Amino acid sequence: MILSTARRCSFAALILGIFALTPIRAGAGEVLVFAAASLKNALDEIAPVFEESTGHEVTVSYAASSVLARQIQLGAPADIFISANVDWMDVLQDQELIDAAARVDLLGNGLVLIGGVDQTPIGSMKPDVDLSAKLDGGHLAMALVDAVPAGIYGKAALQNLGLWEDVQTRIAQTDNVRAALALVAAGAAPLGIVYRSDAHVEDRVQVVASFPSELHPPIVYPATLTATGTPEAQVFLDYLQSETARAVFKEQGFALPGS
User: Fold this and answer.
1) Bridge partners of 101?
2) How confident is residue 78, by pLDDT bands cut at 50, 70 and 90?
3) 24-108+220-251: which CATH architecture?
4) For a FRET experiment, which of 65, 79, 136, 155 has its CA 20 to 30 Å from that of 30?
5) Model pTM?
């Protein structure tokens, strides 16, 4: 009888030890968000307000949408994915790695040509813009033109303007759009192509020209839960669509659905 009781106590202790070593994500109210790099300033402002009002903890990992999508494919434990284009979200949806029912078109954006504060603005990008001359021997900073959404949009716009062939050998490609922004801000590249929202967050650059939206595919930021997203993640996804969050996105230069 004594031995039986001792065994039961040992077994109970073992079970308690296992639970103590296992992360209890839902109970802790933790949300891991994978978000396109262009969302950094906006989400860094939104997340703390959400945490304060709900008690849930939000961690955001920023990178190019392509990089984040591949990490999810490899099993990264993200709860929410926010992409800077629909294609990478479609890939994950086809592979049943996201919750298609929770998917929403969260934001839109515009594409701009940026330069240093001494650059002369030219308004709207047109086929007669001599982009090569404006580079003056330097490079045009862009996110990876065949993989990262901002780079894909930028390449499409330049091709539609008939300017791509003139500058394609002068492209400085970066892992994400914020890295392209940083090159121009540091003076390492005279011009760059980034999102309109990116130009809002860097005082060392200015918008030299805007790209008409018809020159590239629509810039849409879809957001959704992953296939392993938690209930707390749904609460944060809902909050991102609230008037409070939308006010921040709008202030940061993003477009809202229907605008």
Assistant:
1) none
2) very high
3) 3-Layer(aba) Sandwich (3.40)
4) 65
5) 0.84
